[in-house]
Design a protein that fits this description.
185 residues; endopeptidase fold (from Nostoc punctiforme); five-stranded antiparallel beta sheet; two-stranded antiparallel sheet; globular
Amino acid sequence: MTGPVVHGAQLGPGDVLVCDGTAGLSKVIEVGAVLVGEPAASHVAIYHHSDANGTPWAIEGRPGGVGWRDATDYARDPRTITNADQPKTQAQRETISVYAEKMLGTSYDWVHGIAEDALLALDLPALWKPEKDTGVVPCQVVCSSLAAWVYDRADLDAPHPEDWRHVTPGAWALFIAQQGWRPHA
């Protein structure tokens, strides 16, 4: 079953959706993105599948932990952008979907993912150094780091491949706008 169309692009499993929020913490995240020179974006979800009724389903990191979400409003929102144009093999799409499913229930990363991103946006020094990537499944993620981590597992380009934990929604928006998966001269 095919996914919804976002700005003329047909979604497939593993495609990233980058959304703008409307209030609260979403707007704070967007201000942080603008402060570091990224587009104002506040959320990332990974399209997974559409069910028999045509409902598009995504997996996303959120304050309650990684979970499923009906992505109908994301797909319909004219502010939503996607990397559906980024080439992905069927095997890579399956890898993204399987790893995203394995992350269901993973806790939200308030300290490293939100607090440290705020420090970086304000150009303040980090309170700690991130651990070297060991390949171990992370215990905590935010929406954008979840997408970066599963893309790394699928051997696909994503923003800041050297530091998936600090990838922001704005970094994903910039990556998509600049088609960061394409070789640049």
